[in-house]
Design brief:
With 214 residues, the chain is of the alpha+beta class. The protein has one domain (3-199). The protein has helices at residues 3-6, 45-55, 92-98, 100-103, 179-189, and strands at 24-29, 37-42, 65-70, 76-77, 89-91, 107-113, 122-127, 165-168, 171-178, 193-199. It has a six-stranded mixed β-sheet with strand order 4-2-3-6-7-5. It is globular, with a radius of gyration of 17 Å.
Length: 214
């Protein structure tokens, strides 16, 4: 599959009855074949994050997460810097442009430590809301190990469209982004952001065939 068939270039479909805010997306940095962007990968601290996502707030979060840059050392560092769907890492500049208070409506920003004498200024966005909004009868069967669903259908009235992001109980280690936040991030990041449609109330909008794949 080539890059153009993988990347959604922020289409502006016509909304129905204001439900465009309920569209849900997976977001990650664009990783093209030229290696134009460097991304961050969590180390062992990813285990701590997953335990929190599976078991809830009774599992304490660390004060910071450790991550390393991957890809071409000469590549430009992505502002939306993680390609793992459950651990979005944002630069301080991106947080400031989006608005920290806006992001914190759905979670917290935990500092990320990177190697070197001076750590890069990034934060892991820990999305907390776990929302029961999946139509299980029309969605694909979740995978046993992770809960990943190749096809996810949401109940429109239950999607928390006022939030920037949320998670679902069937697949708690992945972040779903709402339509308005996807639009805002797309306006800021432009071609550096890939958006894969998970679901839309608009029948003519086709979800990505493999939304959680690399």
């Amino acid at each position: 599959m080539d890059l153009q068939s993988t990347v959604t270039a922020f289409p502006r479909a016509t909304p129905i009855d204001g439900l465009d805010r309920a569209w849900t997306w997976r977001l990650n940095p664009v990783l093209n074949f030229a290696g134009a962007l460097a991304v961050l990968r969590l180390g062992d601290s990813l285990i701590d994050l997953k335990r929190r996502q599976f078991h809830g707030p009774q599992v304490a979060l660390p004060d910071s997460f450790e991550a390393e840059w991957t890809g071409d050392p000469q590549a430009r560092k992505a502002d939306f810097a993680s390609d793992y769907p459950g651990a979005p890492m944002l630069s301080r500049g991106l947080v400031d442009r989006v608005g920290q208070e806006r992001l914190e409506r759905a979670g917290r920003l935990v500092p990320v430590r990177t190697p070197g004498p001076e750590s890069d200024d990034y934060a892991l966005y820990v999305v907390e809301p776990l929302v029961d909004c999946v139509d299980s009868r029309r969605s694909a069967q979740p995978k046993k190990a992770t809960g990943e669903m190749r096809k996810t259908v949401f109940r429109p009235e239950a999607v928390p469209a006022e939030l920037p992001a949320f998670r679902v109980p069937q697949f708690p280690v992945a972040v779903c982004w709402t339509g308005w936040m996807r639009d805002l991030l797309g306006e800021i990041l432009g071609g550096d952001l890939e958006a894969r449609l998970l679901w839309s109330p608009e029948p003519s909008a086709a979800p990505h065939p493999d939304p959680w794949g690399l």
